[in-house]
Amino acid sequence: MNLHVPLVHPARIASTLALWAHEMGTANGLDLMSALQQVADPRRPSNGTRHDFQEILVMAVCAVLSDCDTVEDIAEWAAVKEPWLRRFLVLPNGVPSQDTFLRIFRLIDPKQFEAAFRRWVGGIVTALGGQIAIDGKSLRGSADVAQGPVHMVSAFHTDLSLVLGQEKVAGKSNEITAIPELLSALDLGGYLVSIDAMGCQKAIAERIVAQGGDYLLAVKGNQPSLLRMIEDAFVDRAAAQPRHEDVEKSHGRTVGQFAWVASAEDIVDPAQWPGCRMIGRILTQRVEGGQFAEPELRYYISSRELSPDALASAARAHWGIENQLHWMLDVQFGEDACTVRKDHAPQNLSLLKKMVLNLIRADTSDTAKASLRRKRKRAAWDDDIRMAMLGIKPL
């Protein structure tokens, strides 16, 4: 038996979303809906789609903002909140099923989705300067018996605590190949770009400088000659160099951090490491229960002249990506628990969660001082708070 399936009315939906985008831009300058409208529908029109692609994206954003971490929860939330969604969406055939949501995120072109994300973030981060931390994270739940977990490399604005972009690491590759792709999509002018030892590569340093930024790269055993030269330089010079000292005491533990810097001249070959002007060393010593842990020594090169204080601050800011981004995605958004693994779904759902994380961090409404967890709870419970955070008004 053939069932008549009413099709979506694209013109009506487009005008609805355009009005939402206008209201959003008017309310808080975050034109998220306009950015989402630039992502192409990956489905074949000949299949007679029942649900509008842009509306599906809108529902997913609203659901994740409202404390939904899985595709199942997104679909269930949309079904429960259908009357509220109809205040600004058309929904000619109701809300999609869980399978439809999952199919969409499996099919979305991640490059298009990422480009739309970056355009939106570009409207938030208007001032040049600051620090961008680059670091990778595995989506543990995406692993199966045939392949390991999907690994994503993210760019994180340490001053604003906003994600600027992400890049998936190719199946049998590593972060060295993904980092240049991510950097090429970012405006690095005026920024200090910090990367751990994996990214301490000559080509990466060259790219950062060519794009108008400065680099701060951790140096470890993967660059043995460079590491040895820096170690020897500090053995000879450290005693004569000014240093930064910082000691913190909490919960019976004392952590001391000591930083030194020196000129890279005659130590680091500028032909190999373009623009390198400084070498740095940070010593961390922990004491807990009267017991001294093994001291930790870290070495750095940078194309920017940094004081010992500035080096210590930049190193701390870089590792802020662990608790401000990676920990948040795991604990607050359940990223590692997500077992979606087919096609582009892991990458796209990771970006969706980062999109909502940025949306919450950029919130200027009355809930701005609440924790991230509390903001998502409030968005789930209160329609007015949700609309305020999204910057929308009912039609």
Entry summary:
With 395 residues, the protein is an alpha+beta fold. The protein has helices at residues 10-28, 32-36, 53-65, 71-80, 82-85, 98-107, 110-124, 175-184, 202-210, 224-237, 308-332, 345-361, 372-381, 383-390; strands at 130-139, 150-157, 162-168, 191-195, 214-219, 243-250, 253-263, 278-288, 291-292, 296-302.
Explain what the structure shows:
With 395 residues, the protein is an alpha+beta fold. It contains 14 helices and ten strands. The protein has helices spanning 10-28, 32-36, 53-65, 71-80, 82-85, 98-107, 110-124, 175-184, 202-210, 224-237, 308-332, 345-361, 372-381, 383-390, and strands spanning 130-139, 150-157, 162-168, 191-195, 214-219, 243-250, 253-263, 278-288, 291-292, 296-302. Helix 9 (202-210) links the parallel strand 4 (191-195) and strand 5 (214-219). It starts with 9 loop residues before the first helix and ends in a 5-residue tail after the last helix.
